Fold these 2 entries.
Entry 1:
Amino acid sequence: MKIILSLLLACVPSAASAAGRVISATGTLMADGKALKAGDPLPNAEIRLASGTATLAMDGARFLLKGPARFTPRSSYFRLDFGSLLSVLRHDAGRRFSVRTPTAVAAVRGTDFFVSVGTKQEVDVCICRGALEVSSKGLDALPMAAKDHLNYRFWPVKTGTARDKSPMIGHTDAELNVLRGLLAAEKP
């Protein structure tokens, strides 16, 4: 089962060589066996963060990855195998983007969201501000819209996936505000 967050955003670079860049990292951020540091290009490869956090930039987007995490950025989607990803993105209805996790699919039509994948493939999805739609095996699509945090948890069951509302976890408004400030400083 997979969660796919399809984002209608203008945050996706067209270059296939680098998905973005590393702004900062408090833990060891590794890709292709090499440590990444502030200013390094963010490769279109599997990235591992053993612990700590990494702040990442793409055109029109800022991300906070929390470890332990395994994350793969691509020009048209992200894959988050485990860990947490907080995202602030500029909205553009003309672009499609997705984030894939092991348990469900969510189409994002908003700007700020959080996705976390736990050790048992449980997935928390929070629309922090904006709108998204989550779907997964065995469930109808779930539209989500919020001005201030709406969180659902999804988890695998024998017949597909179960879901329920849950409290906001794993991220703060302060972290969102930092990402928003970094994005606002970007020249459009």
Note: Residues 1-17 have pLDDT under 50 and may be disordered.
Entry 2:
Amino acid sequence: MKKKIVLGVILVVLVVAACLSVGVMLNWRNNTNSAMQDDVASRNDAEDFASGGGVVAEDNTTGENAGSANIEVKDLAEIAKEDGKVNIYFFWGDGCAHCAAAFKFFASIREEYGKYYNLYTFETWFNDENAKLAKVFAEKMGDTVKGVPYIIIGEKSFIGFGAQDSDKLVQAIEEQRGGEFDVYWDRVR
């Protein structure tokens, strides 16, 4: 009889612990989603790359965004190749915290470096065509990409993003801005 009571108590404790763990995980997920939504909401309207599932090649180069095109691409015909500028291809996921940080990074360098690049963005988590396109671009760059953010700057590519990558991205922009190579124009098209 004691064994049944002890087993019953252990079972109840395990069920309660499992419920608490699930509750903590759901609360963490909700807090994380809320923080990511705050990150996305904190971008100004001109940087709202994902409204309505994407903007068809909207060029946000006016006002505080002058000097850098931030374009959510749906039609590849909208991709331009300009002398003295490097095209940056940024594959991201809506809800990805690292992607939100990369968006903030590009916004932070826009004033100083925006004249040297065009930023083309492709949301991949909710857009199957963009996800397929990311694989094509990665293959052409010799990369195996299993997640986002995935960023291509000229001949250089970056998988993931963290504060430690900021200097590497700026260096790539500086080195690649006058280069001839563009993965879309030279290998994808």
Note: The two ends are 76 Å apart (CA to CA).
